[in-house]
Amino acid sequence: MTSPEMNPPDTAPTHLVPAAELEELVRAIFAKAGCSDEESALIARELVGANLAGHDSHGVVRVPLYVDWMQAGWVRPGRTAEVVTDGGAFVLLDGHRGFGQTIAAQAVALGVERAAANGSCIVALRGAGHIGRVGAYAETALAAGLISIHFVNVAGSPLVAPFGATERRFSTAPFAVGLPLPERPLVLDFATSLVAEGKVQVASYGGKPLPPDALITPEGRKSDDPHVLYGDYGPTDIRRSGAGAGAIRAFGEHKGSGLALMCELLAGAFTGGGCAGPVEGERRGIANGMLSIYLSPAHFGTQAEFERIAREYLDWVLSASPIDAAEPVLAPGEPEARNRAARLASGVPLPVNTWGALQRTAEGLGVHSG
User: What SS3 class is residue 76?
Assistant: First the structure.
């Protein structure tokens, strides 16, 4: 995922919703769709949490598509991750298309528990529904005092063109790292595509526009038009990435393209869950793979040195003279913290078409959306 923008300029009319009210609406939608009360609450908390962090691409804009997938049987409520291989210090899990927020939380809890007890653990997860904001799982590890590294892919979902190409070959292939530094924990979390696919969704509903070179057409022309990815759509229609002929570009040219390839091979091939392609026939929802590494500084015997050296270095990095005095150098995770505080205080801004799509989904299930 790319960094969220703090206090973005108004690009279209927005509907401001208190976080608690938005979370309750999303919870009610998934409960009505057939999820348990516990799972509905978890999905709602994680989606709204992404909005609060400023990552609207992984927030409630996803609700209509999640419900559509659930009704089609492409994502399944009430699932538990199956242990396929258990080597103690390493585990392979299969999510069997359960909701990603549920399955990934189970995988992370297992990795955290074992690393906290033994010093390290590697968890390979395959077959999870869309797991959402990967940084949230790094934050879970941080709360336990653990370093975590996450490589993620999406099986059967090519969206991104490799460097120098126009055709889709990679998923958006997120990468995240969490470091538990005292008073200043760090979370680095980004898609290896120039923008996350959810940001294209947000732009298509009238939210923050895309960078002018975010997408590429089959003819090789760079574009910021979401229709390149989604084809034709109405204001509140579900966005289907398979309907467009273009692709998202990788970030950083060959560097992002290379990192995307490694995410596909580690999270997709190594876990056995599959890479972004080749794809035959219609794509059926999302199946995330995630390879996670958990490390306990306390067990390695380097915690004091790690914290001292890392904080000294971080402070030195952040002391660099900014280009603009009004915009100081920020540490990974600081924009999210600032957005969270601001949005908890004033509400979550949603483009009116995102709010309209959410209302349309709620009303289709018989849920009053306010």
Answer: strand
pLDDT digits (tens, 9 = 90+) for 6-37: 434 445 688 899 999 999 999 999 999 999 99
Residue 189 to residue 138: CA distance in whole angstroms: 9
Name beta bridge partners: 249.
161
What tens digit of pLDDT does each residue of 323-350 get? 999 999 999 999 999 999 999 999 999 9
CA angle 324, 2, 229 (to 5 degrees): 125
The single-letter DSSP state of residue 62 is G
Work out the number of other CB atoms within 10 angstroms of the CB of residue 315: 11
**Is residue 3 pLDDT above 50, yes or no?**
no
The rounded distance, in Å, linking the Cα atoms of 44 and 64 is: 13
Query: Angle CA(351)–CA(228)–CA(133) in degrees, nearest 5?
Result: 50
Tell me how far apart the alpha carbons of residues 69 and 67 are, in angstroms, rounded to a whole number.
5
For residue 278, cis peptide bond before it (omega within 30 degrees of 0)? yes
Largest Cα–Cα distance in the chain? 57
With contact defined as beta carbons under 8 Å apart, do 187 and 142 qualify? yes
Q: Which ranges in the chain belong to alpha helices (H)?
A: 19-33, 37-52, 63-72, 100-118, 135-143, 197-204, 227-230, 254-263, 297-300, 303-318, 334-346, 352-364
